[in-house]
Amino acid sequence: MPLAAGTRLGPYEITAPIGKGGMGEVYRARDTKLDRAVAIKVLPEELASDQERVARFEREAKLLASLNHPNIASIYGFESSGLVLELVEGPTLAERIVEGPIPVQEAIAIARQIADALEAGHGAGVVHRDLKPANVKVKEDGTVKVLDYGLAKALEGELTTVADFELSHSPTLTRQATHIGVILGTAAYMSPEQAKGKRVDKRADIWAFGAVLYEMLTGKRAFAGEDVSETLAHVLTKEPEWEALPSEIPGVLRQLLRICLAKDAKQRLRDIGDARLALEGAFETNATPGEPRIPTRKTRALLAAIGVLAIATVVTTWGWFRAARSFPAVARNTYVAATLGINEHNLTALTDRFAVSADGTLLALVDPTRGGLVLRRTSGLEVTPVMGAPPQARSPVFSPDGAWIAFSGVRALMKIPTAGGQPTVLAEGTDYFINLTWGADDRIRYPSLQNDAIRSVSASGGPVETVSFPRAWVSRGVGLPNGRLLVSLMTEGERQIAVREPDGTLRKVLAGWDARLAPTGHLLFSREEGRTWSVLAARFDVNTARVEGEAEVLAQDVPVRYATPAGADAAGNLFYIAGTTRSDRRVVLLDRAGAERELPVPPGTWVSQTLSADGRWLALDRLEGANRTLWTVALDTGALTQVTYLDDTFAPVWAPDSRRLFYTSFPIDADQRSTSLWSVLTDGQGKVEPVAAQWDAYPGAVSSDGRLLYYHAYSSDQARSDILSVPLDGAAPEPTVLLATPASEARPTPSPDGRWLAYETNASGTEETRVAPLSDLAASIQVSTRGGSPIRFSPDSTKFYFTDGDTIASVDVGSRGPVLASRSAIFSVPGDQHGRVSVTSDGNHAVAIRGGLIYSDIVVLQNALSASR
C-alpha cells in the first residue's frame, strides 16, 4: 500500500514518493532526529509480512551498511521493514543517456567512479548484482553515486516471477520462487551466468560495468531486445555492435570493453580495480624517455586482464603488447604476454611451460585444454596451433633460427617445423625429455630419467650421447665451444652451476640453479632467497666459460622445481612465469539430488582432495608456483593446516587414524633418489619419513588395520605400472608385488574387511576400474564402463564407489564380488574430475573440486638484459 505524506516510520516522516521498482517503493523522508533528508525504500509486501525473511534481510542490510565510500549511496538504518538510505539528488545515468551518447572524457570520468565504488564493495566481499544506469546517479558537481549496492543479494530468491516489467528499471527477476534457478539483475545488464541462473561472483558486476560503459559511449544498450526472452538470448549469443563505439576512444578502452563483456566468466576481467587503473591511464604506452612508467608489482601481475581478449579455444592468453624499440634502451617496463592455463593432465608441463624464439616474436605454449602446442605472437593477437604436434607435446624449445620446435612427445624427443608439419622422432626411450636446450652446435640436450646424466642428440637425428654425473642430480645441460658443457646440478647438498671440461673435471661457476644461455651473451639462472626464488643474469664469456662481473637480480618470486620457467630473446627482454598462480577452485559437498554447498575451504589452486575414513578431515593438494603442498582442513571448524612445505608433495592418502598422510614426492637430493613414497604427521610440524625404497611410486590406500600401504609404481622403462604393498610396522620394509601384467594397473583400494582390492587398469585400452579378491587378483570383475577410477568401499565392504565417465557410480559387493546388476550412477560430476572426488562413508554425499584451469602469467620485463651491465 502506498504511503501518504506524513506517515511515520520510526523517527522518519514520509514527505513524497520518489519512485517504484521491483525491490520496493522509494519515498523522500525527513529524519526528525538529525533533521536531514533521507530516502526510504519500503520492502515488497510479500517480504515485509514474513518476519523470518525480514530478519534475514536486516542481517544483510547490516553488512551493506558497512560500505562507507564516497561513490556508494549509504544505508543509514532499518525501520519497520523500510530501509533508510542516503538521499541522492540529481538525474540517474539512465536519464542522462536518454539525451544521447556521453562525451568520451565525461564517460571515462563517470566510469572511473563506478569502478571505484565496485572495487570498494568487492573488497568488502559484496557483489552489487544489479548494476545498471538506473542505479547510478550523477550529481551536479560530477560526483557519481551507485545506488542499491548489494540489495539484490539481500532479496535473492524471495520474489515471484514478474511477467511484465520495463527492462531498464525492474531490478529483480526470478524464474522460480525457489532458490534454484534464480535470475537476478535487469535483463539488458545481466551476465550470461546470471541469465542461466548460475552462481555469480564479482565478475557479474564487471560484465554489467562493461555494458553500462558501452551504453554511455554509444547511447544504446550493448544487448537489446523487444522482450525479456530476446534480450537474454542476445546476452547469451550476440556480440555488441563494436563498430558503434566512437572512433576517438583510446585503444585500451576498446580492449577493456571487450574483456569486460567476455561471455565466459573465466575469460573476463578478474578485478574491477584493473578497469579503474586502465581508465586512469595506468596502462598507456606513451612513457617518455625521462619518465618511464614502471607499474607496481600488483599492477604488473594484473595487466593480463586488460590487454587482449583471451583465446578460449586454444589457451587462455591475455597481454598488452608493445614493441621493444618504443622504449628507451635502458628502461625496464613490465607487462603480461600471456596467461597459461594448467590442469591435472598437464601438470608435468610445469617444468617448461613455454619457449620464446631468439628473435622474440613467438611464444610456444602447451595448450592445456586440447593438448599440443600453440604459437602466440608477441606483436599481435594471433594464437595458432602448431599443426601436426601431438596432444601429448610439452616442454617446447625453439631452434636457434626459430624454424623448428623440439618437444617431448610420447616416450620420444621430437621436432616439428614451427609452421607445422610432420613431426620427426629424434630419440626414443624412457627419459622424460624435459628441460631441453638447443645449442649453437645444433645438438639438443636433456637430463636422463634418473637425473644422473645429460644426454644429447643431433637435431638431424643419430645416436644419443651420454655424459654421466655420479653422485649428482643434474637438471639442464648447455653445450659450449671447445667441448665444454655447462650444467646445473645438485651435489653435496648444494645447487650449483658448473662447467664440465673436456677431460671430465668439474669447475663451479657460481651458486644457482637451472642455467641457460640468453642470446644477449648472458647466463640466465635462478637462486633461492629464503623461501622464494629469483631469476638472475650475469655476463658470460662462452669461450672461456667464465662469468664477467656481478650477477643481477631481474625478477623475484618465480616458481622453481626442476627448472625455472624463464627465457630471453636477442633484444634483451626477459620472459618468465609469475610466482603467483590464480584459481577460483572451490571445494563443495554434493548430495544425490544434485544440490551442492561450499565447504569451509577458501578458494584456491586446489588440485586434488580426499576424505579421511571418519569423514571429519579433508586432505588437499595445492599448487604453489611449480610445487605442490599438502594441507588438511577440519570440516567441522574449517581449520586449515599446512602439513608439507617447499617440496613437491602430492597424491595424499589417509592413515586410518587420520593422524598421518602418505604421499608422493621426488627429492632432488641425490642421496634420497631411491625413495618417492613418504609419510607426514598431520600436526603441521612438517616432519616427514620415508616409507619404502621405491622410485616413481604413488600411494593408493592404507589397509583398515593400518598395517599395509597399497600403491602402484612404474617400471624402469615406464612401459607399465604394477601394484605393490609394503608393511608399515617394520624397520626395513620390503615391498611385495601383488599384480604385474603387460598393462598398467594403478590406484589400489582395499576393502575394509580385507577381502577385495579395487584398482584401475588400461588392459582394455581405456582406463577402467576392476574389483578382485585379494587372494586372486587375476580374477577381477570390471565395474566401470566409460573410463573410471576407484574411490572407496563402504565401511562394511558391501558397496563400492567409483567414477564412471562423468558420474560417480556404486555397485553392491556380495560374497562373490561385485553384483553388476546393482550398478547405478548416484552423482553427476564433470568428466575432468580425475582424482578430485571423494564419497562419504554413507554414500549420500560426494566431495568435489569445482573450477577449471589454474592460471599463471607469462610476464615480460622489457630490456632486462640490455640494461644489465
- Strand segment count: 56
The overall pLDDT, averaged over residues, is 81
Low-confidence stretches: 155-185, 285-330
Calculate Rg over CA atoms: 30 Å
Q: Give the biggest sheet.
A: 6 strands, antiparallel
- Order of strands, main sheet, comes to 1-2-3-4-6-5
Count of helix runs: 12
End-to-end separation: 78 Å
Spatial shape = globular
Helix residue percentage: 10-25%
- How much of the sequence lies in strands comes to 35-45%
Structural class: mainly beta
Overall description:
This protein is mainly β and 869 residues long. It contains twelve helices and 56 strands. Strands 1-2-3-4-6-5 form a six-stranded antiparallel β-sheet, with helices on one face. It has a four-stranded antiparallel β-sheet with strand order 9-56-31-30. Strands 10-11-12-13 form a four-stranded antiparallel β-sheet, with no helix packed on it. Helix 4 runs antiparallel to helix 7 and helix 4 packs antiparallel against helix 10. The protein is globular. 47% of the residues are buried.
Which helices and strands, and how do they pair?
Layout: E1 8-9, E2 12-21, E3 24-31, E4 36-42, H1 45-48, H2 51-65, E5 75-79, E6 82-86, H3 93-98, H4 104-123, E7 136-138, E8 144-146, H5 151-154, H6 192-195, H7 202-218, H8 228-237, H9 251-260, H10 272-279, H11 297-302, H12 304-307, E9 334-342, E10 354-356, E11 362-366, E12 373-377, E13 383-385, E14 394-398, E15 404-408, E16 412-417, E17 424-428, E18 437-438, E19 443-447, E20 453-458, E21 465-468, E22 473-479, E23 485-491, E24 494-500, E25 506-511, E26 513-517, E27 522-529, E28 532-541, E29 546-556, E30 566-568, E31 574-577, E32 586-591, E33 596-598, E34 606-611, E35 617-624, E36 627-634, E37 640-642, E38 649-654, E39 660-665, E40 677-681, E41 688-692, E42 697-702, E43 708-714, E44 721-727, E45 736-739, E46 745-750, E47 756-761, E48 768-773, E49 781-782, E50 790-793, E51 799-804, E52 807-814, E53 817-828, E54 837-839, E55 845-850, E56 854-861
Antiparallel strand pairs: 1-2, 2-3, 3-4, 4-6, 5-6, 7-8, 9-56, 10-11, 11-12, 12-13, 14-15, 15-16, 16-17, 18-19, 19-20, 20-21, 22-23, 23-24, 24-25, 26-27, 27-28, 28-29, 30-31, 31-56, 32-33, 32-55, 34-35, 35-36, 36-37, 38-39, 39-40, 40-41, 42-43, 43-44, 44-45, 46-47, 47-48, 48-49, 50-51, 51-52, ...
Helix pairs in contact: 4-7, 4-10, 7-9
